[in-house]
Each structure stands twice: as structure tokens, then as C-alpha cells.
Amino acid sequence: MNTDIKIGDKVRSFDFAAHRDIEGPDACFAEGVVEGFQTIGCTRFDIRVTRAVWEGKEVPTEEGARIAPPLNGTPTNMGRITDGVVKIEEAEPANQIGDMDLSNLTEEQLDVIRTLALAAEEHFDRLGRDSEFAPKADRANRASIQAFKLIGRIRREKETRTEAA
After folding, report:
1. Of all helices (H) and strands (E), which one includes residue 111?
2. Quick check: 47 and 30 in contact, CB under 8 A?
3. How far apart are CA 20 and CA 14, in angstroms?
4. H-helix or E-strand spanning residue 34
5. In whole angstroms, what is the distance from residue 20 CA to residue 1 CA?
6. Terminus of the chain with fewer CB atoms < 10 Å: N or C?
7. Do the Cβ atoms of 51 and 27 come closer than 8 Å?
């Protein structure tokens, strides 16, 4: 059982306990990115779906579609323990923004991006603070943190340019 699944991990959620096929007529699963956790009767994953397969055939998914399978290790009313969500890729690198190459941008472009990031951070802070729906608040808080990191990355790029001049 895989219980070390975190926000940002790419996962595959199998529909049926008896089938873990990823090809053929018994393949039934959804793939996506873990965006958070929620409680609906029990603690569940909040997964944004990027791909779905039913009876071995890929089926279209709507943009923004979500699923909420129970957290691995949750007992079912049939006496089974859930373990249907498996990690298929590691989370994005923690320093995704910090490693961003900004050297090809002009000062004016950096200023515009910084202004937008400041507005986004403020907006997502307010959205997270005002939201009563935990997954929405979590997403807003993560977006605010990303905007904050981008602002810091732009500051470091400007400092590097000043030191090199």
C-alpha cells in the first residue's frame, strides 16, 4: 500500500480492487495530479483528472474534472482496506521556480511579471482566507506561495544583473 502520496504527485486511481491492469479490457482507472485532500464521510484525495480509461479504452475527460477516491488505508464497509491510488510520478521539484531561467527577459518584462505576481499573490491570499471550502482554500494558498516564490526569483535575477554590471 502506497501511503506517501503528496500534493503535486501524479497518481493512478484504479476503479476496481480486483483489477490493476493498465491495458486490455479490464483496465479501468483515472490518472491525474493530487491537488489536496478533503473530507466527505472519510478523508479522500482531491485529484484533478488528466486521463481516464474505461474497459481498456481511453475516454474523454472534461478540463478541470476531479475525482475523490478514499485515502489508501481507509476501511470499507465490506471489510476491505482501500489501496487503489498509486503514485506514478514524483512531485514536481520543490525549486521549480527557483531554477527558472530569466536571463533572456528584459528589465521591463521582469517588472511586468513582478507586478502580475504581486497582484496574484494578493488575490490568492484573499481567496484562501475567505474560502470555506478546504480544497479551494488549499489551492489558493499554494498559488499564493508560487507567486511569492516568483517575486523572490525576479528579485534575485535583478540583483544578479546589478552585481554583474
Report:
1. helix 107-130
2. yes
3. 7
4. strand 29-40
5. 13
6. C
7. no
